[in-house]
Amino acid sequence: MEKHIQAPVCEQDIASLHAGDYVYISGTIYTARDAAHKRMQETLAAGGPLPVDLNGNILYYMGPSPAREGQVIGSAGPTTAGRMDRYTPELLDLGLKGMIGKGKRSIKVKEAIVRNGAVYFAAVGGAGALLSKAILKSEVIAYDDLGTEAIRRLEVKDFPVIVVIDGEGKDLYEEVLAGTNT
After folding, report:
1. Which residues are 163's β-sheet partners?
2. Which residue in 14, 46, 60, 61 is a FRET match for 35, CA 20 to 30 A apart?
3. What is the pLDDT of residues 10-51, one digit of tens each?
4. d(CA 74, CA 159)
């Protein structure tokens, strides 16, 4: 099924999504990769505030290539989500409602997705140039010293993703492997 949602997301929109749904996201999402996740975890461990309010927000596991002249952002393809798995349950418990990446997630992440009524989306790997066309604005908001791994605020319009793990814990990858996805 094809759906359109606005980010930040509301609980009703997340609850309406099911593994296998094609979703187009418009609004504000944030980027964060390995180094940014590590720094956020260190900040939380030290009792400090995060640079982004995670409540209702979506993190895109992406580090863009430099923008060419006249472009908002360079190639903006997803990175492997599993690299963020050790940090993700805590971020979900703090209100994060969605993640965009590629690849499988751990059992602990799946449990946190269900516990928090969140969702994991996949963006098509290798399609970074195409995905960048859905990004209207890109601004570094934290950890500038991390270069491409800095946290960015992105304004997106009809950013194409697929629901891989929904709030009930249904996993598209597992369903396809088992031959149960219809």
Report:
1. 121
2. 14
3. 999 999 999 999 999 999 999 999 999 999 999 999 999 999
4. 15
